[in-house]
Design goal:
Largest sheet: 7 strands, mixed
Strand order of the largest sheet: 3-4-2-5-1-6-7
Shape: globular
Strand content: 5-15%
Number of strands: 7
Number of helices: 13
Number of domains: 1
Order of helices and strands: EHEHHHEEHHEHEHHEHHHH
CATH architecture: 3-Layer(aba) Sandwich
Helix content: 40-55%
Structural class: alpha/beta
CATH topology: Rossmann fold
CATH superfamily: P-loop containing nucleotide triphosphate hydrolases
Distance between the termini: 9 Å
């Protein structure tokens, strides 16, 4: 069984999609077979790879809401070791439509458990909220990575997120664990960013990854080029950072749920 990792934070703009794409690409460099699942109605991960969310074939919306949809039909192969299940705007209605579904918090887990493909890792790019789609991701996952932008307001919502993770673990998915908190968008030239990083490490200690993702225009450029930064600028410090993060993920020695 693959290790399923939710990339989660209810705050938008903290690097969830960037981390999903580039961590997946870094693991694929190591020979790991990776599936990326776009669970955000904004479909940023889908657009990152240049996929047409309106193309023929089911999206994650159909897999969640239509029993007749076959998960394998939604998988798009985009690199030799990287597959994607795309999202589209229809997913915005899923929160309402799933509400009356039987076992609504566990539907994504059932979808992913029926996938074939020999994946080593499955990454779920979560929407910027703590709604039913995010809960589905947390119930389906073995691990959670929390990207946190190195600025003060990004810290304010962490207690709410941690409380949600604790409740999901206690009531719905006892096997889930926080793999790590990932500092992102660090501007090393400002004292404020350094103070936020120090506060993160004080609050969460070893739960914070050693890897830090620093702010760089290369990330925006690689998004426009529809490439992971590891392809767009292979020797850039951002590429090296995600390779370092991939090693931390591979070194995770907790038993998967």
């Amino acid at each position: 069984m693959p290790t399923t990792i939710a990339i989660c934070n209810q705050k938008g703009g903290v690097g969830k999609t960037t981390t999903s794409v580039n961590l997946g690409a870094a693991l694929a460099e190591r020979g790991q077979r990776v599936l990326l699942v776009d669970l955000d109605p904004q479909a940023a991960l889908t657009a990152y790879w240049g996929l047409d969310s309106d193309s023929a074939g089911p999206s994650i919306y159909q897999l969640l809401l239509e029993d007749a949809s076959v998960p394998a039909d939604a998988v798009r192969s985009i690199r030799p070791l990287i597959d994607v299940i795309p999202a589209d705007i229809d997913l915005a209605a899923a929160e309402i439509e799933l509400w009356s579904a039987l076992g609504r918090e566990r539907i994504l887990r059932e979808v992913l458990s029926s996938l074939q493909g020999g994946y080593d890792y499955v990454f779920v790019d979560c929407p910027p909220n703590l709604g039913l789609l995010t809960i589905n991701a947390l119930v389906a996952c073995d691990r959670v990575i929390i990207p946190v932008q190195c600025e003060f307001f990004a810290l304010r919502g962490l207690s709410m997120l941690m409380d949600t993770l604790h409740k999901v673990k206690r009531r719905l998915n006892p096997q889930s664990e926080i793999l790590g908190i990932l500092p992102t968008m660090l501007n090393s030239r400002t004292r404020h960013a350094q103070e936020v990083l120090e506060e993160l490490r004080t609050m969460f200690g070893p739960r914070v990854f050693q890897t830090i993702i620093k702010s760089s225009i290369r990330f925006a450029e690689s998004t426009l080029a529809k490439q992971p930064i590891l392809e767009y600028a292979p020797t850039h410090p951002g590429s090296q950072a995600y390779r370092s993060l991939a090693q931390e993920v591979l070194d995770d020695n907790r038993p998967a749920g």
